[in-house]
Specification:
Oligomer: single chain
Structural class: alpha/beta
CATH topology: Rossmann fold
CATH class: Alpha Beta
Helix content: 40-55%
Distance between the termini: 52 Å
Length: 239
């Protein structure tokens, strides 16, 4: 199938371009592609009814959503490695949140690639949360949980990393909510587009103490996509 070949080629390209992605995917490459393929099928089965993603066809779904979710995997892995160095005493897997998960992007592709971490997909819309529960069961992914509700109502200080994609523009209230969800030393990682647009979004926040630890927009490349993409990394203020 053309689109599945595209997925495999895209994942191979990510592996070649980042040694950390290679080390994560190589031992489980067949499993990862199989589960991602099943996930794509689930999205296509329910997309029309639930309005899960904006994609004209399977090729666009693969490139703009699945591969885009996986493209900064190496960056995220390195952030988590540094962040968890002093947490070897923990008995549970480190926790990651996908805020406003929608169709499970980027949470489900990341969870497939990072079985050593537990993911919570937070989604306020009931029918989309239902899709996520169904997909978890259908794909047999043991390291994800689904939480129906607003991010604001989730328990505080739970997550080592909170990520989101196509969620909301950053503003003070949202930033405080994201920080509240992080454990001490946690990280926010937002999928974003052009650097210029990120600068515009962050400009009003620069004067606030919320950004006292600074931020970094790390570029990443999505196979077959000629668009500027960045992972916006923000650390909560020190307390």
């Amino acid at each position: 199938m053309k689109e599945i070949n595209l997925l495999s080629e895209g994942v191979d390209a990510l592996r070649k371009n980042d040694k950390d992605i290679e080390s994560l995917i190589a031992p489980r490459a067949e499993e990862v592609i199989s589960r991602l393929t099943s996930y794509i099928n689930e999205i296509e089965l329910f997309n029309e009814a639930y309005g899960l993603v904006g994609a004209a066809d399977t090729e666009e779904l693969v490139v703009k959503h699945i591969l885009d979710s996986l493209a900064p995997l190496g960056i995220i892995s390195r952030l988590l490695t540094v962040n968890c160095l002093n947490e070897a005493h923990e008995t549970q897997k480190p926790q990651i949140a996908d805020a406003g998960s929608g169709a499970g992007l980027p949470g489900i592709p990341l969870a497939i690639a990072l079985p050593g971490f537990d993911f919570t997909l937070i989604e306020r819309m009931g029918r989309r949360a239902g899709f996520l529960w169904n997909t978890k069961a259908s794909l047999g992914i043991s390291n994800i949980a689904v939480e129906e509700g607003e991010l604001e109502k989730t328990s505080p200080e739970r997550f080592r990393l909170v990520t989101f994609r196509a969620f909301k523009p950053l503003e003070p209230k949202l930033l405080k909510t994201l920080f509240k969800a992080c454990v001490k030393g946690g990280i926010i990682a937002a999928y974003k587009g052009r650097r210029e647009k990120i600068e515009q979004e962050m400009a009003p926040l620069k004067k606030l103490s919320l950004l006292e630890c600074g931020w970094e927009a790390i570029p990443y490349t999505v196979p077959f996509l000629d668009e500027e993409r960045h992972l916006l990394v923000i650390k909560p203020p020190k307390t």
